[in-house]
Specification:
The complex is a heterodimer of chains A (114) and B (112).
Chain A (H helix, E strand, L loop, with lengths): L4 E3 L2 E4 L5 E6 L6 E7 L6 E7 L14 E5 L5 E5 L8 E8 L8 E2 L3 E5 L1
Parallel strand pairs in A: 2-10
Antiparallel strand pairs in A: 1-3, 3-7, 4-5, 4-8, 6-7, 8-9, 8-10
Chain B lengths: L2 E3 L4 E5 L4 E3 L2 E3 L5 E7 L5 E7 L5 E3 L5 E5 L4 E6 L8 E8 L5 E3 L3 E6 L1
Parallel strand pairs in B: 2-12
Antiparallel strand pairs in B: 1-4, 3-9, 5-6, 5-10, 7-8, 8-9, 10-11, 10-12
Classes of the chains: A mainly beta (114), B mainly beta (112).
């Protein structure tokens, strides 16, 4: 696609429910990132996928968070048993490391846990 | 491991004044360097990037940045700030074929 696409753009969920956030990267981009940004805060790295390599999961805050990337393209970030502190914007980004490695961001998924 | 430090959490400048945002990086070789801007309620937009060659790079919106290897810095500058430049600015360092790392950001406030 023309840009990084994320869905849903907004999600309100009840505490304790599971949520899935989807990211469709730019076609051909082999690298994909998930970040979390709480209100007024910086970027918190969550996970990095690059091609067929094992993902760098070092930023996942707890075992309630997981992500997968199917077929080297679309990625899903899953948050189980959501807590109020999970409320944030979840940003997906992609890049093509073999050609400049410029990172392109999606518009984000705004998650509110009530 | 690579890392980025943006020493200034918050900077306030008057409209029309010059601006410099600092960025220091740690990386074992020549890195790829980026500056991104995030306006309130918006996504991140690439301002400029350095891969190789001329160490002074020009970006959009009148911004420029200079790569100084000896100082491990990539500071962002603008000669005259406009009120619309108020935003969060992120510096990033990337391995040429690998993962990029972002700094914690600098919030710019522009006084009328």
């Amino acid at each position: 696609g023309a840009g990084v696409s994320q869905s849903p753009s907004n999600k309100v969920t009840e505490k304790g429910k599971d949520v899935e956030l989807r990211c469709d990267p730019i076609s051909g981009h082999t690298a994909l990132y998930w970040y979390r940004q709480s209100l007024g805060q910086g970027l918190e790295f969550l996970i990095y996928f690059q091609g067929n390599s094992a993902p760098d999961k070092s930023g996942l805050p707890s075992d309630r968070f997981s992500a997968e990337r199917t077929g080297g393209s679309v990625s899903t970030l899953t948050i189980q048993r959501t807590q109020q502190e999970d409320s944030a914007v979840y940003l997906c980004a992609s890049s093509f490391p073999a050609s400049g490695n410029t990172i392109y961001f999606g518009e984000g998924s705004w998650l509110t846990v009530v | 491991a690579q890392s980025v430090t943006q020493p200034d959490i918050h900077i306030t400048v008057s409209e029309g004044a010059s601006l410099e945002l600092r960025c220091n990086y740690s990386y074992g070789a020549t890195p790829y360097l980026f500056w991104y801007v995030q306006s309130p309620g918006q996504g991140l937009q690439l301002l400029l990037k350095y891969f190789s060659g001329d160490t002074l790079v020009q970006g959009i919106k009148g911004f420029e940045a200079e790569f100084k290897r000896s100082q491990s810095s990539f500071n962002l500058r603008k000669p005259s700030v406009h009120w619309s430049d108020a935003a969060e600015y992120f510096c990033a360092v990337g391995a040429p074929a690998g993962k990029s790392t972002f700094g914690d950001g600098t919030t710019l406030t522009v006084k009328p």
